[in-house]
Design brief:
Largest sheet: none
Structural class: mainly alpha
CATH class of the largest domain: Mainly Alpha
Helix content: 55-70%
CATH architecture of the largest domain: Alpha Horseshoe
CATH topology of the largest domain: Serine Threonine Protein Phosphatase 5, Tetratricopeptide repeat
Strand content: under 5%
Distance between the termini: 36 Å
Number of domains: 3
Amino acid sequence: MTRIHEGPIIAAALLAAVVATGCSESDAPPPAKAQNVAQTAPSSPVSTPALDEGSATKLEGPASFADGEAAYAANDYAGATRVFARYVEQSPDNAWGHFMLGLSAWKSGDLARAEGAFGKALDRDPNHVKSLVNLGRVLLDAKRPEDALERLTRAADIDPLSGDAHRLLGRAYHAQGKTDEAVDAYRRAIELDPKDGWAMNNLGLLFLEQQRAADALPLLARAAELRKDVPAFHNNLGMALEHTGRFSAAAAAYSGALAADPDYGKAKQNLARVALVKEGPVEPVDPDDVATSAVEEAEIPRDDEVVGQ
C-alpha cells in the first residue's frame, strides 16, 4: 500500500486540516427531539398571536408552548426564543419551558441567555438531565470545559445510559487535554448508540491528532456512512484516507463532502491538494465502498447488531 509522503507541505496541510475540523461542529438535538419534549410538558393555555414578519421582541397575550415548539421546529430560533421567554413569565415553575428557552437561545447564538435559562430549569428540577446536557453544550461553546465537565458528569451519573452526556463528556475531556478519558467517553457513547456519528467523528479526529490514522479510519468511515448529509464527516474521512496513503479514495471522500455541500471550503482545498499527489494508475473509487470496507474490517456494529453494555 502506498504510504503518504512525509514532505513538509503535505504534512503541514493535513495537520492544519485536522485542527480546523475539530469537534466543534454542532451536534445539537434536531427539532424532532424538541417536539418529543412537548409531549411530556404541561399543555399551555391558548395559542400565541401570530408574530409580524421581522417583529422585534414584544409579544402580546398568553404564549403557547406548542407555538414556541413549532417555531423551533421551523428553525425560527429567534421567534422560538421570544415565545418561550413569554411562556416562562406565565409558567415560571415549568422546567420544560425554561429548557426550551435555553435551547432556542443557544441555537440563536445567545449563550448567556441560554446558560441562564438552563440554570432556571435546573433550579426547578435539579435532576433535569436534558438541561444538564445542553448546559454542558453551551459551556463548551463558551470555552469553559471545566464548568461543562461538572454538569455533564452529573448528567451521566443521573442517567448512565445517556449517549449525549457521554459524547459531550468526551468533548470536555478532549478540550482539557485528557485524551484517555475522552477516548473512554466517546467509546461509551458509541456503545450506547451505534448510530452516534458525532461520537465516531470526534473520536476519529482525536485519533488523527494522535497520528493514529489507522484507528481513525473505520470510525470516520462509519460516521460518513451514517450521515451522508454532513460534509464534515466526508472531509474528515478523506483526511484519514490521505494519512494512510489512499489518495484516490481520499479524493472520492472529499467529493462526497462537496456533494453534500458544494460550497464546503475545506473539502475544496483538500481535493485540490490530493489531486497533486501521484500514486500511479488507479481505478475509480466509490466512497460508499470505502466506508463499508473500513467499517467491516474494524467490526464496528451496525444498526441491527446488539452492542454490549
